[in-house]
Amino acid sequence: MGRWKNSKNLPNKAENRPEDYSLQREAGQSPLIPPGGRKSNLYSVHLAGNRLTTVPRRALQDLPVLRHLHLQQNGIRAISEDDFTGLLTLTQLDLSENLIGEVDTSAFTPLSSLEVLNLSLNPLSQLRHRPDQGLPWLRRLYLQNTAITDVTAEMLKGFSNLTDLELGSCRIQSVAADAFSPTPGLAYLGLRNNSITNIAAGTFAPLSKLETLHLDNNGLVGLDSGAFSQGSSRLRELYLQNNVLAAVPDLGQPASSRLQTLRLSKNVITELSSASLSSLTDLVTLDIADNKLSSISQGAFDQLTNLKGLYLQNNELTTITGGSFEQLTSLEAVNVSGNPWRCDCNIRGLRDDIKTKVICASPANLRGRSLDQVTPEDLGCDQSPDATSPTGPRSTTCRATFTMILLVGAMLTHVMFLDLFCI
Q1: Which residues of the chain, if any, have pLDDT below 50?
Q2: How many domains does the chain have?
Q3: What residue numbers bound the domain in which 304 lies?
Q4: Biased composition, Polar residues: where in the chain (predicted)?
């Protein structure tokens, strides 16, 4: 016989509040209805990991305070509007890891308090809406690991008040330029682990409240410079790692102005120009590890005064201009390992500007040695006071030239004086 449990191991007392109870049916056991009069007090029902092929309507009757319903890891193939009749207080519904192939959102219309819906890990290929119907009260929708191939405005038109949308690890190949026009309140959008190669101009423009965007691991080739347009003024975190981007994308204003985390590792970026990062003034974490970066222009980091973490490991950097990190006054962590550094006098600034381990790859006599253990003489640096200054060699040349001019002038004056007096 089925065994019903209080999930918080609370004593069986009549004074217990409704939210104290959780109902759980162990796998393969029955019945679905708990004994006694405690059913009306149930706050959370757990029916995960059973062999259910349909929603157990009988078990879900007369649950006036039910808030959470867990039906994941079953064999449910379809849902209908009658499955959830009477669950007016339900706020969270988990139907993940079932066999649901299609969903008509009218099935959820009785759930007028529903805020969180999890349909992930189903062979779901589409969401259908009846005219003038949808789930305008829903806040969070999880559709990861489904069979959805395209994101369109038609699919999302019934979810006007969503704040979180997870579409990671689906089969998505395209995102329509107007896809998110029905969901202007999104703060979190997950599109990772798909096959999206391009994002068109204006795609994220309606998302003025967007804070976190995942586009990592997609094979993304381009992110149109107008993808954010005038939207996304609250964007804080942007994940673009493991794509095939050849340059740091131009996010434009205002999307770039408040960005704090930018992940670009495992792309094919080759250089950072002085303009690549200039608009990212609030950036705290910058990750460009595992690219093909071979050149960093002087001044590339000058506007990043709030940067705390900089990750440039496993690139193709051989040298970097002295003073490149001088403006990074907030820097706490930096990683430049795994680059083929050429240890000569040009790299001395790297050791002086940041305290991190740098291993020399060349010349041959310094290969494998840590830069902090190499002397200036080993680097071939002139140790005169003038040579150690950024303007030293130029100043020395100027002084030498000026001295020679004075000497020549003095000699000419002396000759003229002798000629004047016929001496």
Answers
A1: 1-17, 19-21, 23, 26-28, 30-31, 36, 385-423
A2: 1
A3: 269-393
A4: 385-395
